[in-house]
Amino acid sequence: MSAVELNAEEAFVGTVEPEGADRLDTAKLTEWMEANVAGFQGPLKLTKFKGGQSNPTYKIEAPSGNYVLRRKPFGPLLPSAHAVDREYKVQAALAKAGWTVAPQFGLCTDDSVVGSWFYVMGMVDGRTIWNGAMPDDTPEYRRATYFAMIETLAKLHLVDVDAVGLSDYGKPGNYFGRQVDRWTKQYKLSETELMPDMERLIEWLPATLPEQTRTGVVHGDYRIDNMIWAKDRPEVLAVLDWELSTLGDPLGDFSYVAMAWVTDNGGRSGVQDLDRKALGIPELDEVVECYCKAMGRDSVPDMNWYFAYNFFRLAGIMQGIKKRVIDGTASSAHAKAMSERVQPLVDRATHFAKLAGM
Questions:
Q1: Which of 4, 73, 142, 182 has its CA 20 to 30 A from that of 280?
Q2: Nearest to 314 by CA among 175, 210, 221, 188
Q3: Looking at domain 139-355, which CATH architecture does it have?
């Protein structure tokens, strides 16, 4: 295992004792669990996961099993951010439809229990693939894993939103238009300095929106390390982190997962600088073919606009973290390092925007 992988493992894997504001009232939580979680038996032990610095996430260990609690951060928050109620709603609907999410046990919108809204779900036993190079696996296993990731995504995009009760989960109109508008607003609310290239992107993206031809559930942060994998086979057991999900253009998710092919590895999900052939990792055109076959599509549009949009969106997200670091409300020890990634992301967005004709 390389030093970079060890860093990712150390940074994100495992739990720590909650400190200071991250401590929750376990007596009140136990009472809520007894009233709302079928089959729950206390006493409970609470620890906080190291990773996931947007919505603080906890592991609950109890005689009846292990659970996961996700809550809103404490303190002032940007409007529409950290919507744990939306995360719960989409996962509960997809779980009923038999799609690959953790079992959902309950949502609490009463701040008096732990100090903020939260929801509780089952803890799925499996592995997390932090490194897209999958150094401990065989080429055949890697290849099957990548195709399983794409086929699982296609199944999500084929879910009948009306049949599962999610027809009101997103606003009508062009998904990318809404997203560009949303992340522009979030960026402006978090702005700490003037970035000329970001201003150009804010002007260019809404003027060049692609036509939307399909609508489905969009996860919003779909990548290899946001899912629980079976330990002994290339199968997705549960997809995590639904904070950015909505109804929209499935190409939002597909182009986001395709970003791995234009992002260097660095011990994380990128595969651009890897010897993909030797590792068994499929090329982007093979991934496109796999997705199109599963979706019944002939092709996908030129990806440069979508890559520009995705890097722009990531820059907006990182800018929000940067502002929270400055304000002192960011909840993860990695937030400061992440906040320094804003300018490089703007540079990448600008690069692809130029390829798309900016």
A1: 4
A2: 221
A3: Alpha-Beta Complex (3.90)
